[in-house]
Amino acid sequence: MLAARFSGIGDIQVLPVPISQGLPDGCVRIRVEAAGICGSDLHNFQTGQWLSRCPVTPGHEFSGTITQTSGNCGSLTVGTPVIADSRIGCGTCQPCRSGRKNLCRNLSFVGESCDGGFAQDVILPATQVLPFPDTLPLRYGALVEPLSVSSTPSTASHQHPAPRSSSAAAVRSEG
């Protein structure tokens, strides 16, 4: 299969890579339909700051269809349209153990600590995958992660009193 492989700062190439024949227990193989380029992908290309290994296939904003499962993958089955949860928690800290991996102190991301969606296929743990409605075009799934990042501040603002008209507010998002 073909994959965009990041090998170091400023070095990304589309290369043939072997297709892994085995599939770890609890994982799914996804045929990638669409992938978006995030600002963090560009930042990693320019600086390599958040990468924990090289080479790696970047891409955490993607959608696709499950083509293979192994072991217990919950309700995920072959043919299910899916998106990836880009956040990978350590699994051992208090936030991770209480289901809040977004607060993990050792948080990493698909496409940085493991291969991501800039490939024809990607293998991820079933716990990193979310079903996507089959009533929408699958290519829209690649937009879910950036839209969720940008909507979080506005959603969170409904949980707090509105600022007075004389107050200033700044909204910042690092997608």
Average pLDDT number: 87
- The share of residues in helices is 10-25%
- Stretches where pLDDT is under 50 for at least 5 consecutive residues are none
Number of strands: 9
Strand order in the largest sheet:
8-3-4-5-9
Span from first to last CA? 28 Å
How many whole angstroms does the radius of gyration measure? 17 Å
> Outline, from the CA principal axes?
globular
Features:
single chain, alpha+beta, globular, two-stranded antiparallel sheet
Task: Give an overview of the whole structure.
This protein is an alpha+beta fold. It has helices at 39-47, 94-97, 144-157, and strands at 2-8, 11-16, 27-36, 61-69, 81-84, 87-88, 108-109, 121-125, 129-131. The model has no long low-confidence stretch (mean pLDDT 87). It is built from three helices and nine strands, in the order βββαβββαβββα. It has a five-stranded antiparallel β-sheet with strand order 8-3-4-5-9. β1 (2-8) and β2 (11-16) form a beta hairpin. It starts with a strand and ends in an 18-residue tail after the last helix. Helices cover 15% and strands 27% of the residues.
Short description:
The protein contains three helices and nine strands; from the N terminus they run βββαβββαβββα. The chain has 175 residues and is of the alpha+beta class.
Ordered list of secondary-structure elements with their pairings:
Layout: E1 2-8, E2 11-16, E3 27-36, H1 39-47, E4 61-69, E5 81-84, E6 87-88, H2 94-97, E7 108-109, E8 121-125, E9 129-131, H3 144-157
Antiparallel strand pairs: 1-2, 3-4, 3-8, 4-5, 5-9, 6-7
